[in-house]
């Protein structure tokens, strides 16, 4: 199967992050061996720049500090997961505490009624 330059350039970020399937990774790797333009484009992208489109002669855009890297996104997701876990655990703790307090109040009321309201 012949892979077009546009398709290969569309998946360069995934290729660089190691997020492609083995079959797709090999397709991109083989294409890079054969295509000088895509190799040059990939080298530019690896150095921190991308092109505004997959076509030759497109202008360079987006400095690397503007882009969110995969690691930054993953770190933000981990922080959000921890925050949500803390909130969820706090809610469960509050529910259990309310249950215990209600049980104690009911028990005290039962004992009070059993002893004749003393």
Q: What do you see in this structure?
A:
- The chain contains 5 helices and 2 strands.
- With 118 residues, it is mostly helical.
- It has a two-stranded antiparallel sheet with strand order 1-2.
- β1 and β2 form a beta hairpin.
- The longest helix has 45 residues.
- The radius of gyration is 30 Å and the shape is rod-shaped.
Structure characteristics:
mainly alpha, 5 helices, rod-shaped
Secondary-structure map:
Elements: H1 5-10, H2 12-17, H3 22-34, H4 36-46, E1 50-51, E2 60-61, H5 70-114
Antiparallel strand pairs: 1-2
Structure described in brief:
This protein has 118 residues and is mostly helical. Helices cover 69% and strands 3% of the residues.
- Written as H for each helix and E for each strand, in order along the chain, the element string is HHHHEEH
Radius of gyration: 30 Å
Find the count of extended strands (DSSP E, 2+ residues). 2
Q: Percent of residues in helical segments?
A: 55-70%
Cross-sheet strand order for the largest sheet:
1-2
Main sheet attributes: strand count, strand direction, barrel closure: 2 strands, antiparallel
Instruction: List low-confidence stretches.
Output: 50-66
End-to-end distance: 89 Å
- What is the 3D shape? rod-shaped
Query: How much of the polypeptide forms β-strand, as a percent range?
Result: under 5%
Q: Whole-number average pLDDT?
A: 78
Secondary structure category? mainly alpha
